[in-house]
Amino acid sequence: MTQNPIRLLLADDQAMVRAGFRMVLDAQTDMSVIGEAGDGAEAVRLTGELSPDVVLMDIRMPTMDGVEATRRISEAYADATRVLVLTTFDLDEYVYAALQAGASGFLLKDAGPAELLAAIRAVHSGESVVAPSATRRLLERFLPSLPAGPLEQRNAQERLSVLTEREREILVEVGRGLTNSEIAGKLFLAEATVKTHIGHILAKLNLRDRIQMVVLAYDTGLVKPQP
Question: DSSP letter string over 86-136?
């Protein structure tokens, strides 16, 4: 095992699902499952006790669902722990809510072992695991059923006041699902410049990753769902 393996917490109400994940994950030299939770409340408690690097979070669980657990973990342990949401094939509004609550990405439960391992390593390294276009499609499908209130919209708009005009332009294109290279081509910028601007946006708005940039772009109305 490597000197500092990725410490994982499994949160799922089905013991057999947790056992299957553990079998795959503990077989990796760079990963170690340090705990299991059968509901969201237990996941929050164990996160505080064990300080995992990544929590694999199911959405639908008793006592406290994965959305609320993700929100509490993101608020209390954002510096130490990231959340990877697991969902069924039929993506639902709970996934959007979890991303909005601070999850670093989502993965289908029927993903293969290679995809699961790659997603965990990406989240641990600070990346998001959802392609921007996939995130955009998810938001466009479910955002109309989760409208923000006037106060939430006003607060979100106030957050954007710290951005330069160029940074707002780039935030819009990220929200539309463009990659860095596509944004560079559209705005006639070097790709390295786009990356620099995105870094500034993340820092100014206290966002963790690209997914949260997409969520904010929709929340503030910079990007509208396509009809």
Answer: EE-SS--HHHHHHHHHT--EEEETT--HHHHHHHHHHHHTT--SS-HHHHH
Burial environment of residue 108 by CB neighbours within 10 A (0 to 12, 13 to 18, 19 or more):
middle
- Tokens representing 52 are 């995992």
Which pair of structure tokens corresponds to residue 129? 């695991």
**How far is it, in rounded angstroms, from Cα 217 to Cα 88?**
26
Specify whether the CB–CB gap between 170 and 183 falls below 8 A. yes
Contact 158, 222 (CB under 8 A): no
- Residue 33 is inside which H or E element, if any? strand 31-37
Q: How distant is the alpha carbon of residue 122 from its chain centre?
A: 11
- pLDDT score of 78: 80
* Mean pLDDT estimate for the chain: 83
pLDDT score at 150: 46
pTM: 0.69
Task: Report the alpha-carbon distance of residue 85 to residue 67 in Å, rounded.
Answer: 9
Three-class SS of residue 210? helix
d(CA 26, CA 30): 9
Q: How far is CA 37 from CA 42, 158, 179, 200, 204, in A?
A: 5, 38, 36, 36, 34
